[in-house]
Amino acid sequence: MDSPKPQCPSFATTSRAHLRPLGVIVDDSFLTEAKNTQKRKLSQKRKTLLSCPFSIGGHLSPRPTYISDQTILHNRKPCSDDYRQRVGSWQQQPLGTTKPRYLEQLENYLRKELLLLDLGTDSAQELRLQVTKLRKNLAEEYLRYLSERDARKILIADLNELRYQWEDMSLAQSPGVWREDPVKLTTALKMARQDLTRTQMELNTMKANFGDVVPRRDFEMQEKTLKDLQEQLDSLRDDYEEVRKEHEMLLQLHMSTLKERDQFYSELQEIQRTCTPRPDWSKCEDVVAGGRDRWRMLAEGKNSNQLVDVLLEEIGEGLLREKDFFPGLGYGESIPPFLRFDGVVENKKPTKKDVVNLLKDAWKERITEEQKEKFPDFFFNFLERRFGPGDAMAWAYTIFEYTKLFHSNEVMSQFYAVLMGKRKESVYIKQKETIAQLLKEMTNADSQNKGLLTMEQLSTALKSTFPFKKDKRIQELMEAGGWHPSSSNEDLLNYCVLLREDEEGQSVPFVQKLWKQYMDEKDEYLQELKQELDLELHDEVTLPKVREALMNIDPSLDKQTLNSYLSQAFQLPMTELPEEGEEKEEGIVISLQTALEQLQMSDVRRMGPREQEPAS
């Protein structure tokens, strides 16, 4: 009776662990038989094959049916009588089937080893430990045999299945079609699996080695982004450092401002406690000669300090008119040459207008002559030429007292400063030349010769006359001349009235603003010179140092103007000044304060812009 075909898993699903140790056993008899039995029916061929299942080449044996618990001998001592009886009965028991060759060899080996054991010696314990080890090894070998036998059965079933499929395909194909060799396919499949395994290993290696690696393009982009961010960070750090320094400076300034505020507040409290009330200047209207109208003209645009000077001048003028004689000051060295006299001199009692006109005539004569003599000597000689030797001393004392009293009058105050050596006469002469130059520029701008200019033309004339003035100061001059920011550029201005003086020599606000700006610009120029020298006022300075500092702050200085400044600062004639590079090491030394005072008395002004320092 034909046995049914075993239901085994297909070759494609067979575990790789079963195929690798067994390999594939293919006999050529399969191919020969297939060629001889092509015309047989498929059912008869399968019955013939199933009549001898799992016997290919005689190398595989079916699973023994006699296996029982006697095979593994669990928990049995090899030296016991029971063990011997079991072994004897096992050897004498007839078997239904033949044992596997390897199992018979192993049992024979075990029987020999058991007969060689000497159970009566003292090494029984050691022998027990060895028959335990043997029992364990026997069980392991038996289990391995069972696994190998089951795998071979599965493999044989898969081979039979493949054989049936191959025969079906061969019957369906025509005899002339080329058929692939199963061995070649098997080999190709094996190689494909090896390639797959190797590729999988390489893929795993690549994933392990380069799993965290980014593409070079992404790396370069990230690197560029990092560089940009680093530059931004450095820039922000620099900005932060500058802001921090500015913040510290502002904090210090704030603290100093708080201290000044507290100090000023304390002073204000003290002043409010001790000071007298603000004077009512309207009370002076009845005291000053000329009444309310003259007082308002004198007090217009003046602060309290200036009003005090005006009031003192009015009072002093009244006292001067009451004096008939002036006492002589003697012949002392400290007395100016034009005032050296013993006895009394007559007070000529001129009006302020007479004094101003006399001084203007003296200036005109001084400007036209060669200026060989000193100004005090020139003044006395001028009085002698005007009034004669007998009245010259009286007029000298009279004019001296008048010019000393009237500080608010520009003509008198400037003449007194030059007469007493507090200011160089070149300052007054240069100022008059500047006003004349400005008037010339305005006249040139007045194309219609009507004495009128637009604000734009006035601004152009001012910038042409004063090319180094800042725009803010140009605007101040225009506002002093009558221009307002709300005014239109087409508004006309009578420029002739900007440079006029009244009968007493008092100039208009435009000329006063021009003179104030000149003094402020001179102070700034000398302050810049002091900063360039980087010295204290009591420190000594040499001529080469001052020359170098002047050239640094005003590179446009020509040689003649530079020598003029040095001559005035060191009180040396220009002919005695050493040339540049010829100064001796010891040189001429004076204090910085003396040099600045001498320059303050002289006509000093900027001749060109200072070179811009390179940006840090």
Portion in beta strands: under 5%
> Regions with pLDDT < 50 over 5+ consecutive residues?
1-39, 41-81, 83-96
Class inferred from helices and paired strands: mainly alpha
Assembly form of the protein? single chain
Distance between the termini: 112 Å
In short:
Helices cover 62% and strands 3% of the residues.
Task: Give an account of the 3D structure.
- The chain has 616 residues and is mainly α.
- It folds into five domains: 1-173, no CATH class; 241-274; 323-422, no CATH class; 424-499, Recoverin, domain 1; 524-610, no CATH class.
- It has 22 helices and six strands.
- The strands form three sheets. A two-stranded antiparallel ribbon has the order 1-2.
Task: Record keyword descriptors for this entry.
mainly alpha, 616 residues, two-stranded antiparallel sheet, 22 helices
SSE topology:
Elements: H1 16-22, H2 28-36, H3 42-50, H4 69-72, H5 81-92, H6 101-116, H7 124-172, H8 182-210, H9 216-274, H10 291-299, H11 304-322, E1 325-327, E2 344-346, H12 352-368, H13 375-387, H14 389-405, H15 410-419, H16 425-445, E3 452-454, H17 455-465, H18 471-480, E4 492-494, H19 509-533, E5 540-542, H20 543-553, H21 559-570, E6 589-591, H22 592-601
Antiparallel strand pairs: 1-2, 3-4, 5-6
